[in-house]
């Protein structure tokens, strides 16, 4: 890439035309998502303009990395892959930001301060502090406090903790305290600085967002995250109401895959009609029961291939009720007249056979 | 082996990899030539369903802007440690209406005897990486020591980077310990991801395998023999009035082609067991000599669904690779040949044949040899 092209590109990035184009890209993408709500079980909550801003930030700050990643798509002029890749990055990045806005703010302030604070960014973490080879990584803030270390907190108004000047000032103060305590030069991870600030000030309130909500049980004891999730999932009807259309679309598509290989009718005969493997083999012209069994495995593999990609339909977060409904929908797509057993029966058989 | 990522994050990454591997790219998605397959794909794939060319107009514009600062890919001599993309021709539609897109690979070693390479497949989704995946750094993603296979050198397209020899050694060492995949729970998202990655790797490897076997078995034959179109052209260049069979198998073409009448050796009258066959000598660029020989058949019968043929090649033509096919209704089935280079004695078995195939079919013999063993 020539120096000229690089400069022209940078100038373009800072132009109103660039912003206009990025907005157009993001709006088109979001419109497609809105028109096709089946692309994901979790509807996107991000606004198109947020996506556009994130795309711009990615292009500005991670240009080199992006070029490496995108080079093959660009050479092949695969704009579909380009969109998929960039929007995935932007979406993950926005998700991260939405998760902890204050952390993002601190990172941005440190990044802007750059070399004056010794800021460094790697793929997995950001840090600041001493750049000397003998500098050590500061231990986690929580562990130091657990060991009895008592940091000091200067008198700073809560509403100023989001300001870059305050954050850099606190970064210096925190580092000095650590170096005094550890008697060594240190590098401090951004998340440890955040932990220190959060300990001294309710940093989240500066962004008008709630600090981590503590969900309590009936006796007032805090629930673990997984317990809290389970409690949230208890409003099952709400969940199903939301996902019913999505599930129907999902099962219809898998039914097509199964139908391509004559597996849907096979499953239907085995599970709905309760035919023996031998009878199914005779009806479908298969060589025998073992062939039916082999085909049933094929069907399971196809179903698993797709459910393994979806939240609540597989793995650790499997929601059995949701899965049962999905299976019922899937087998209902087979319109064989013989399948006249009651749904209750179908449910039981389905569960036994496929779970 | 465990991953730190949560279930939702893993599944999102797995979904994205699946799309990257199985959804058609821009040129295929909107190509009239692929319209039918794309329609079937869209019926099944919710990610591609509803995509319109109009949606991508602005993305095309953005891509073209980024292209201006994208370096042109290189095509250096292949060496271990290099990261390559594979030719798109290795991909294509499968029987599930998915468009399999060839992955990036890391070259682990050169297989010089067959003009091949052994590679480890690469994926770019850090959250799906486990301890036995190797981070290649510089944004190249992770190599899969549990998913290595052989390809032809000509299967790679562009080189995107290079890793250290130590890293290659480390990956090779991991590749030799095969047990790790078994320790992943079958309900784990990564289990499904890995099963699928192996399937993609097998799709790539299966396309290279026949050529690699061919090169291994016939190292003295030039590589142009692997291309039926080239063979057809060179035969007609050698003897324009030669009759060529309809086949994509170049060796079958050599065996079943019929030279002009004047060139064919005829069996002597009364010599019922004499059998005419093609004798071909190739060099790096063309057919050096092409003639017919007369073999003497001493047995040709069928027993236990196996057609058995025995005989002697004529004295002038005993050396080279002897190949045999049973041609029934235009289908050429290759037989298992044992051939004594000194005496010219041979035995051939065609298994799983019916009496009807025996009665109606015909033996094809070919003696082929190469003058040199180098690439075209």
Written description of the protein model:
- The complex is a heterodimer of chains A (355) and B (376).
- Chain A has 355 residues and is mostly helical.
- In chain A, 63% of the residues lie in helices and 3% in strands.
- Chain A has three domains: 3-99, no CATH class; 103-207, no CATH class; 237-354, no CATH class.
- In chain A, strands 1-2-4-3 form a four-stranded mixed β-sheet.
- Residues 208-239 of chain A have low confidence and may be disordered.
- Chain B is 28% helix and 29% strand.
- Chain B is built from nine helices and 16 strands.
- Chain B has helices at 7-22, 26-29, 35-44, 57-67, 165-176, 189-217, 228-238, 250-256, 355-360, and strands spanning 82-86, 92-93, 99-100, 104-111, 116-123, 134-135, 142-152, 156-162, 274-282, 287-303, 306-312, 321-328, 331-334, 336-339, 345-350, 362-370.
- In chain B, the strands form three sheets. Chain B has an eight-stranded mixed β-sheet with strand order 13-12-16-9-10-11-15-14. Chain B has a six-stranded antiparallel β-sheet with strand order 6-7-5-4-1-8. A two-stranded antiparallel ribbon of chain B has the order 2-3.
- Chain B is elongated, with a radius of gyration of 26 Å.
- Chain B starts with 6 loop residues before the first helix and ends in a 6-residue tail after the last strand.
- Chains A and B meet through helix 1, helix 2, helix 4, helix 5 and helix 11 of A and helix 1, helix 2, helix 4, strand 8 and helix 6 of B.
Give a short overview:
The complex is a heterodimer of chains A (355) and B (376). Chain A is built from 16 helices and 4 strands. By secondary structure, chain A is mainly α.
By secondary-structure content and strand pairing, the structural class of chain A works out as: mainly alpha
Mean pLDDT reading of chain B: 90
Q: Strand content of the residues of chain A, in percent?
A: under 5%
Which value, in Å, is the CA radius of gyration of chain A?
28 Å
Which CATH-level-2 architecture of the largest domain in chain B? Roll
Oligomer: heterodimer
Q: How many helical elements of chain A?
A: 16
Q: Specify the helix fraction band of chain B.
A: 25-40%
Radius of gyration of chain B: 26 Å
**Largest two-chain interface:** A-B, 61 and 63 residues
Low-confidence regions of chain B? none
On the 0 to 100 scale, the average pLDDT of chain A is 79
User: Within the largest sheet of chain B, what's the order of strands?
Assistant: 13-12-16-9-10-11-15-14
**Could you give the distance between the termini of chain A?**
55 Å
The shape of chain B, in one word, is: elongated
CATH classification class of the largest domain in chain B: Mainly Beta
């Amino acid at each position: 890439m020539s120096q000229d092209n690089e400069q022209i590109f940078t100038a373009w990035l800072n132009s109103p035309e660039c912003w206009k184009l990025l907005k157009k890209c993001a709006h088109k993408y979001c419109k497609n998502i809105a028109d096709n709500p089946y692309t994901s079980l979790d509807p996107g909550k991000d606004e198109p303009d947020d996506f556009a801003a994130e795309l711009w930030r990615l292009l500005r700050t991670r240009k080199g990395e992006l070029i490496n990643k995108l080079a093959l798509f660009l050479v092949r002029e695969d704009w579909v892959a380009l969109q998929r890749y960039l929007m995935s990055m932007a979406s993950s990045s926005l998700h991260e930001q939405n998760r902890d806005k204050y952390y993002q703010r601190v990172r941005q302030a440190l990044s802007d301060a750059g070399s004056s604070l010794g800021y460094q960014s790697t793929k997995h973490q950001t840090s600041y502090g001493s750049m000397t080879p003998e500098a050590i990584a500061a231990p986690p803030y929580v562990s130091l406090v657990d060991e009895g270390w008592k940091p000091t907190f200067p008198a700073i108004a809560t509403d100023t903790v989001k300001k870059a000047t305050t954050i850099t000032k606190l970064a210096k103060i925190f580092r000095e305290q650590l170096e005094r305590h550890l008697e060594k030069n240190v590098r401090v991870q951004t998340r440890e600085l955040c932990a220190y600030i959060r300990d001294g000030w309710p940093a989240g309130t500066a962004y008008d967002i709630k600090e981590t909500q503590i969900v309590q049980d009936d006796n007032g004891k805090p629930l673990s995250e997984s317990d809290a999730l389970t409690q949230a999932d208890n409003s099952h009807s709400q969940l199903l109401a939301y996902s019913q259309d999505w599930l129907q679309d999902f099962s219809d598509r898998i039914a097509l895959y199964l139908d391509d290989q004559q597996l849907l009718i096979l499953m239907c005969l085995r599970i709905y009609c309760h035919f023996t493997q031998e009878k199914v083999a005779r009806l479908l012209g298969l060589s025998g029961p073992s062939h039916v069994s082999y085909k049933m495995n094929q069907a399971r593999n196809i179903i698993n291939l797709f459910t393994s990609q979806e939240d609540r339909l597989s793995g650790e977060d499997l929601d059995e009720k949701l899965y049962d409904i999905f299976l019922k929908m899937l087998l209902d797509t087979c319109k064989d007249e013989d399948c006249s057993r009651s749904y209750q029966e179908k449910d039981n058989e389905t569960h036994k056979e496929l779970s | 082996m465990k991953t730190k990522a949560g279930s939702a994050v893993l599944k999102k990454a797995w979904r994205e990899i699946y799309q990257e591997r199985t959804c058609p790219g821009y040129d295929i998605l909107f190509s009239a030539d692929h319209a039918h397959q794309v329609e079937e794909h869209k019926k099944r794939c919710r990610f591609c369903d509803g995509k319109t060319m109009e949606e991508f107009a602005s993305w095309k514009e953005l891509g073209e802007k980024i292209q201006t600062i994208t370096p042109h890919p290189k095509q250096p001599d292949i060496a271990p440690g290099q990261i390559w993309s594979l030719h798109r021709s290795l991909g294509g539609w499968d029987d599930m209406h998915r468009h399999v897109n060839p992955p990036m690979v890391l070259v682990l070693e050169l297989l010089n005897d067959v003009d091949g390479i052994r590679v480890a497949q690469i994926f770019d989704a850090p959250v799906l990486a486990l301890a036995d995946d190797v981070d290649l750094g510089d944004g190249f993603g992770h190599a899969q020591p549990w998913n290595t296979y052989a390809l032809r050198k000509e299967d790679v397209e562009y080189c995107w980077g290079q890793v250290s020899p130590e890293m290659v050694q480390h990956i090779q060492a991991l590749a030799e310990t095969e047990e790790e995949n078994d320790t992943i729970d079958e309900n784990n998202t990564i289990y499904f991801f890995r099963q699928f990655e192996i399937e993609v790797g097998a799709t790539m490897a299966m396309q290279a395998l026949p050529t690699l076997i061919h090169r291994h078995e016939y190292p003295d034959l030039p590589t142009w023999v692997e291309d039926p179109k080239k063979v057809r052209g060179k035969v007609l260049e050698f003897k324009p009035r030669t009759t060529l069979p309809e086949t994509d198998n170049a060796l079958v073409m050599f065996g079943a082609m019929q030279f002009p009448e004047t060139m064919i050796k005829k069996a002597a009258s009364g010599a019922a067991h004499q059998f005419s066959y093609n004798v071909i000598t190739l060099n790096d660029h063309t057919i050096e000599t092409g003639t017919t020989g007369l073999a003497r058949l001493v047995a040709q019968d069928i027993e236990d669904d196996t057609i058995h043929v025995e005989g002697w090649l004529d004295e002038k033509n005993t050396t080279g690779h002897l190949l045999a096919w049973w041609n029934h209704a235009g289908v050429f089935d290759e037989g298992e040949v044992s051939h004594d280079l000194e005496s010219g004695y041979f035995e051939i078995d065609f298994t799983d044949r019916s009496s009807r195939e025996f009665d109606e079919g015909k033996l094809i013999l070919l003696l082929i040899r190469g003058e040199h063993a180098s690439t075209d």
